[in-house]
Request: fold
Amino acid sequence: MAKLILSMDNLQLKDIALNKERTTIGRKPHNDIQIDNLAISGEHAVVITILNDSFLEDIGSTNGTFVNGQAVKKHFLQNGDTIELGKYRLKYVNDAPPPASAPDFERTMILRPGQVVKPAEGVSDEPKPTPMQAPPVAPPPPPPPSTTLSVVGVIKVLSGGNAGKELELTKSLTTLGKPGVQVAVIARRPLGYFMTHVEGATFPIVNGVSLDAQPRKLIDHDIVELAGTKMEFFIKS
Reply:
């Protein structure tokens, strides 16, 4: 699990596990990571964690948010990145090994234990008993059910210059919107597709209702309004 290590003047203060969708950082007590320092805004920044990925977003702080010495508004965190807030440092640690599949988490067909392979022609697959033959080995247990989503979602643009274009949501994370205006991500999970607001003062709208800070599961033929563009989500048959 990814975490942040809070330190000041090279003195490590505490570790914070990123086990929530949104981890807020700021001076006010209601923040998940409270830093009681006047250089830190009341609500300074937020880390959005989806699956094994984390995004950092500055939410209008007075003194800004820096990563590895560079001012950022939105940043995709990578293992070893250091978030700088005044005199405080938050080191992002995510050394979990990548999943044993393609980078976008799409599965590859493999030969599972217990599958029967047809013997070559003329070769018997019956065991040849011998006086010292060992007892048969019990077959391995069946593999667990697949955790891969079996359907494919599609986003179709309904308005603007790209009207009519379609985007298949085959990757684990798909980013939509305009940086600096409004950005959302759609996560492909075993239980379906979920949209989460990432950047922007206003939240995306689904079927006329504004999203909140929590992920929203998309249903077939949902109408999404994002960064001034209307789109339709549907399941590809």
Remarks:
- Residues 98-120 have pLDDT under 50 and may be disordered.
- The chain has no helices and 21 strands.
- The CA atoms of residues 145 and 190 lie 11 Å apart.
- The radius of gyration is 24 Å.
